[in-house]
Structures are given as C-alpha cells and as structure tokens.
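Take a look at the protein record below and tell me what you see:
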Amino acid sequence: MIVEGMPWPLVLPLAIGMMIWGIIRAKNQLSPQPKKNKKSKKK
C-alpha cells in the first residue's frame, strides 16, 4: 500500500475496511454455505 503523501483520515478507514473485508472472506471460505438463488421481488 502506498501511504506516503496520503492524509491519515483517509488511510485509516481504508485499512480498517480491508481488514474487515479479509475477515469476512476468511469466514465465508471456512464455513461454506449452500448458495440459494433468492429471487429479488420487483415492486
């Protein structure tokens, strides 16, 4: 990641978001659930 020259208020949420995304992907890979195709109801 290139952090040099970027303001910290923008870098922190990005890093936290990537960490959360990684954890979610790891959980999805560890506990695979049968994918059910839910039809979205169009109003």
Remarks:
- The chain has a mean pLDDT of 77.
- DSSP finds one helix and no strands in the chain.
- Residues 3 and 11 are 7 Å apart (CA to CA).
- The two ends are 43 Å apart (CA to CA).
